[in-house]
Structure formats: C-alpha cells, structure tokens
Design a protein that fits this description.
The chain is of the alpha+beta class. Helix content is 25%, strand content 23%. Helix 2 (31-40) crosses helix 3 (86-97). The chain starts with a helix and ends in an 8-residue tail after the last strand.
Length: 129
C-alpha cells in the first residue's frame, strides 16, 4: 500500500473488556462491548475502521477508545459512556480522519475529547523541532 493510501486509513480501537467499574459476571455483556457494538452499527466512510481490542489498560477510567492511522498522532480517550457517546465518538473519529496529522483544531473537537484525553502519542517519525 502506498504511503498516501496508508495515511487515508483511520482505526478506531474500542476496548471491549471494559466493565466501567461495575461488578459483573465474567460472561456478562460488558459496557465496552456495548460501546463497540453501538459504534460498529453507525454509518462511516471508507477508510474508517472500528476494531475491538481486548484491553487498553485504562480500567479505572471507564470505557476507553483510541484513534490512530497513517502518519497521524495517536490519541487515547477515556470515560466514554456506552449509551450516550457512540455518535460523539464517531463524530470525533470523522474529524480525526479528515486531518493529515491527527491534530483536530481545539475548537472543532468534541467537548469530551478536550476533557478526557489520556494520551497523545506521536507518529513513528516525528519531525525534530
């Protein structure tokens, strides 16, 4: 795949093992799985893939998602509500997908993204400042 085509790809990772601090049976449907299922049912453009992951190791901070792709910065967001936030997460993912570097202008970010960013990870080759 050419570099330009790789940069057009965005992956939204959703932790499906999240219990959001709730006690539940091991076989019970977890909030993280409910979040993944809700997001996966929403319409999205080509190049935006939703991927279930077993754990993002952010268990004390609610449901967690991450955005990555191409030469972009990677972002991790926490405290996502499986019932109220799927459309907001997809909106943020679409905004991220539309960028070349993953940096959504502050005023254009969903409020949740502004207040619940756990980490921002540079792309593999960040230009030296």
């Amino acid at each position: 795949m050419e570099a330009e085509a790789m940069n057009d790809q965005t992956e939204l990772l959703v932790c499906v093992k999240c219990r959001r601090g709730q006690e539940m049976a091991e076989e019970g449907r977890r909030p993280g799985q409910a979040l993944f299922d809700a997001i996966a049912q929403l319409d999205r453009p080509d190049g935006l893939r939703v991927t279930a992951v077993d754990c993002l190791q952010n268990c004390d901070h609610g449901c967690t998602v991450a955005l990555r792709g191409g030469e972009r910065w990677t972002y991790v967001f926490a405290n996502v509500d499986e019932n109220n936030d799927p459309a907001m997460i997809l909106d943020g993912a679409l905004r991220y997908h539309a960028t070349a570097d993953g940096l959504i202008p502050w005023r254009e970010r969903p409020e949740h993204f502004k207040r619940n960013c756990v980490a921002r990870i540079p792309p593999p080759e960040v230009p030296h400042v």
